[in-house]
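Query structure, 77 C-alpha cells:
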C-alpha cells in the first residue's frame, strides 16, 4: 500500500484507507486507487462516519446500566 498513490488525502484519511483494506481486503484498496480523488474522499468520509457511529453505538451499549437479576425467592405452595 503506497501513500504516494493518494497524495491528495490527509494522513488521517490515508489511515482510514489502511483500515478499510484491513477489513475489506486489498480489493477495496485497489478499487479506491482507481477511483477519482473526489470519489476517494467521499468513500473515506463515508467510512469514517460509519466507524464513528459504530464506536458511539458500542460505547453506548457498554455504558448502559445493566439491571441486576433479582434473587429467586421461595415460592408459596
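Result returned for the query:
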Amino acid at each position: 500500500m503506497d501513500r504516494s498513490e493518494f497524495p491528495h488525502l490527509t494522513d488521517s484519511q490515508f489511515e482510514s484507507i489502511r483500515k478499510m483494506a484491513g477489513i475489506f481486503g486489498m480489493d477495496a484498496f485497489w478499487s479506491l486507487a482507481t477511483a477519482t480523488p473526489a470519489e476517494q474522499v467521499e468513500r473515506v468520509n463515508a467510512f469514517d462516519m460509519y466507524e464513528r457511529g459504530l464506536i458511539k453505538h458500542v460505547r453506548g451499549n457498554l455504558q448502559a446500566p445493566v439491571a441486576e437479576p433479582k434473587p429467586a425467592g421461595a415460592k408459596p405452595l
